[in-house]
């Protein structure tokens, strides 16, 4: 659902995938290999939103701002399910965890990770490579090379997803009974720390 607003039409790279139940409104620029999931709302009605190459905005995320503000998700930003970005600037290769809220004028430094359910209050500046958790969000340590490599690997899955959706996502009638010998899906990526628990 792509909408023009007061003469502003979204600009969306042809390699991006926007789910048909997502809303992209107004002054929005979406780069290459961007994934926007079902139910996401990207509202460029009051200001400009730039989503750079390789970002993902997952299911039920909201991206918005106060009037006249521009916000940017830099290359490779990973916005987890249900997160809200309101007038915040998201650095390159950051991860914003599920159901987190980043308020106005937050600056999230590059390669930072925000834990799920965190709240970062307005005007907070987070240095690069910070791990932020809690309400209010606090930096608890620096992101290690191992952590950022794990994050980057996960984001690569989302960078491949737009072409997979274009090539294979189809509306269909459901089966009433699972077919015999149904294929198993591959385990290609593990939660943080899962490989060290073995």
TrEMBL record:
<dbReference type="GO" id="GO:0016740">
    <property type="term" value="F:transferase activity"/>
</dbReference>
<dbReference type="Pfam" id="PF00132">
    <property type="entry name" value="Hexapep"/>
</dbReference>
<keyword id="KW-0808">Transferase</keyword>
<dbReference type="InterPro" id="IPR011004">
    <property type="entry name" value="Trimer_LpxA-like_sf"/>
</dbReference>
<dbReference type="InterPro" id="IPR050484">
    <property type="entry name" value="Transf_Hexapept/Carb_Anhydrase"/>
</dbReference>
<protein>
    <submittedName>
        <fullName>Isoleucine patch superfamily enzyme, carbonic anhydrase/acetyltransferase</fullName>
    </submittedName>
</protein>
<dbReference type="InterPro" id="IPR001451">
    <property type="entry name" value="Hexapep"/>
</dbReference>
């Amino acid at each position: 659902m792509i909408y023009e607003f007061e003469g502003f039409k979204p600009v969306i790279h042809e390699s991006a995938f926007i789910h048909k139940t997502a809303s992209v409104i107004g002054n929005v620029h979406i780069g290459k290999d961007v994934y926007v999931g079902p139910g996401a709302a990207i509202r460029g009605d009051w200001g400009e939103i730039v989503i750079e190459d390789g970002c993902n905005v997952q299911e039920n995320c909201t991206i918005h701002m106060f009037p006249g503000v521009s916000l940017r998700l830099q290359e490779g930003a990973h916005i987890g399910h249900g997160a809200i970005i309101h007038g915040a600037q998201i650095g390159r290769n950051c991860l914003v965890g599920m159901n987190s809220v980043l308020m106005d004028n937050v600056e999230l430094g590059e390669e930072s990770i925000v834990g799920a359910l965190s709240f970062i209050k307005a005007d907070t500046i987070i240095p690069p490579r910070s791990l932020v958790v809690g309400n209010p969000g606090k930096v608890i340590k620096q992101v290690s090379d191992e952590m950022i490599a794990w994050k980057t690997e996960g984001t690569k899955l989302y960078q491949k997803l737009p072409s997979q959706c274009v090539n294979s996502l189809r509306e269909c009638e459901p089966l009433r009974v699972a077919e015999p010998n149904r294929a198993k899906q591959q385990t290609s990526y593990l939660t943080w720390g899962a490989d060290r628990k073995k």
